[in-house]
Amino acid sequence: MRLSVWTYEGPPHVGAIRVATAMRGVHYVLHAPQGDTYADLLFTMIERRPTRPAVTYTTFQARDLGRDTAELLKDAATAAYERFRPQALLVGASCTAELLQDDPGGLAKTLGLPVPVVPLDLPSYQRKETWGASETFYHLARAMAGPHAPAPGTERPARPTDRAPTCNILGPVALGFRNRDDLREIRGLLESMGITVTITAPMDASPADLARLGEADFNVVLYPEIADTTARWLEKAFRQPRTSTVPIGVGATRDFVREVADLAGIDPAATLEALAPRLPWYSRSVDSTYLTGKRVFVYGDATHVQAAARVAAEEMGFEVVGLGTYVREFARDIRAAAKTYGIEPLISDDYLEVEEAIADLRPDLVLGTQMERHIAKRLGVPCAVISAPVHVQDFPARYAPQMGVEGANVLFDTWVHPLMMGLEEHLLGMFREDFEFHADAGPSHLASASSGRRAPALVSDSIPATGPEAGASSPSSASSSSSSSPSIPDPGAGSPPAAAAGPDSSGTPAQAGGGAPVWTADAERELHKIPFFVRGKARRNTERYATERGVPTITIETLYDAKAHFSR
């Protein structure tokens, strides 16, 4: 039922398709009913790949269950090999076909195909998509590189001094968030340091390339959810060290350069000096003070959540008030990260829990997946997408990495723009009733209505006003109390006043359940006169002021008293 509404991850066989589609010379034979072929749409419509995924379905139907479905799998595997001639064949079952217990991998091995057949046992009812991609990459790497591993206990020979250091880049897959551009950015960074990239996998690698994974001096792990298991095996089997820093943000990129230089045995000074993202300059500018202290909620896969929280706290001057992930395999890492910010992490793949957490925290900015974009829109909060799952608009044709120097610039643009554009939207609402900007007034450079021709309305006229007072001026210093750290809209700003619950015997609205102070209708209307990008801060300050003084009902006088208190 939840799959029909929303899910952050699909079943594990979708993860296997992501690996197979990212590689060259690999084909996936999936034992699945007719309805489980929807995964094609993810790649051709969302990622906009020019070719369909490297997968063949058996597509059995209800009438086929009365006979041997195993024969359908054998026929599909044979036909797939004859048509595509892959270097390696993956074989597995979808969540529905898993119930038939046909053993797809074992059946395919009996066919005697002249290429390696890698069976995938992906328990669909215990695991999900990201884990499925990780397991698929691991089994492929073991199948291809395993025969070339040295005997246990063999020491790795030292790199010749006359040879440049080499590395593999592990983790990028199909349908990953900006994986294509991240790979390009980090490859360029490594090559600028004099390091040769031997293999990138799974993306752009072939089974023959995987057989050579052990030749590199070390491994660069860009996406631990996908590559950590494989990197750990390579470290054990080939004595290959691996990186632990994901280069997202200025600080992490510099740490990454130092870590890579240490593994490669080179001096990082020249590279560190050449790093010149715009973010550090902006963080020291006057404009950045308008964003200092913004309250941020971060949610997504573990890699991007940990990196985004660090950038938000250390480089943007934000306050991380919420942190969470849907990837349960990395819950320990997220809990450790949350401790550094003094908050409780949210480990859940239920979007309703995520929505509830955002509504309770009332952040000024949400950094999340495409689902958080929808949630934030309903709550009236700015949002920037930082993690999969994502929609087609998050696979831009332009170059837009998240990692490295250029990635830091992209992060800066992506996160700052939703906050700064709020100022412009407020001006449109503020002047809505002005004689030059009302709905019947045309643009000033066109003919006026008096000439007999009605000019077209402004595009901005389609933006709804927040209320009858949308164009009224706010209290003279309502925003001055929080000018150094303005807030974006309060999620509850459009809800009916709590005072509507009913007055007590004295005619004053009663405090709801002895909890938070209750707003009168007049105070709520006065609050709406405050520009929306500082309204959330004004609401929180007023409620805090009332709570500290035991005031059960917030009136206009309370609002102004709180304003005067926090202005001092």
Automatic annotation (TrEMBL):
Binding-site positions, [4Fe-4S] cluster: D36
Pathway membership, UniProt: Porphyrin-containing compound metabolism; bacteriochlorophyll biosynthesis (light-independent)
Keywords: 4Fe-4S, ATP-binding, Bacteriochlorophyll biosynthesis, Chlorophyll biosynthesis, Iron, Iron-sulfur, Metal-binding, Nucleotide-binding, Oxidoreductase, Photosynthesis
Record bears the keyword Transmembrane helix: no
Record-annotated Nitrogenase/oxidoreductase component domain positions: 12-419
This enzyme's EC code(s): 1.3.7.7
Residues covered by the Light-independent protochlorophyllide reductase subunit B-like C-terminal domain: 519-563
Cofactor note: Binds 1 [4Fe-4S] cluster per heterodimer. The cluster is bound at the heterodimer interface by residues from both subunits.
Essential cofactor(s): [4Fe-4S] cluster
Protein origin, superkingdom: Bacteria
Entry annotation: catalytic residues: D287 (proton donor)
Biased composition range(s): Low complexity: 464-510
Stretches assigned to coiled coil: none
Reaction equations catalysed: chlorophyllide a + oxidized 2[4Fe-4S]-[ferredoxin] + 2 ADP + 2 phosphate = protochlorophyllide a + reduced 2[4Fe-4S]-[ferredoxin] + 2 ATP + 2 H2O
Major enzyme class: oxidoreductase
Function: Component of the dark-operative protochlorophyllide reductase (DPOR) that uses Mg-ATP and reduced ferredoxin to reduce ring D of protochlorophyllide (Pchlide) to form chlorophyllide a (Chlide). This reaction is light-independent. The NB-protein (BchN-BchB) is the catalytic component of the complex.
Family: Belongs to the ChlB/BchB/BchZ family.
Record-linked NCBIfam families: DPOR_BchB (TIGR01278)
Protein name from the UniProt record: Light-independent protochlorophyllide reductase subunit B
Gene that encodes it: bchB
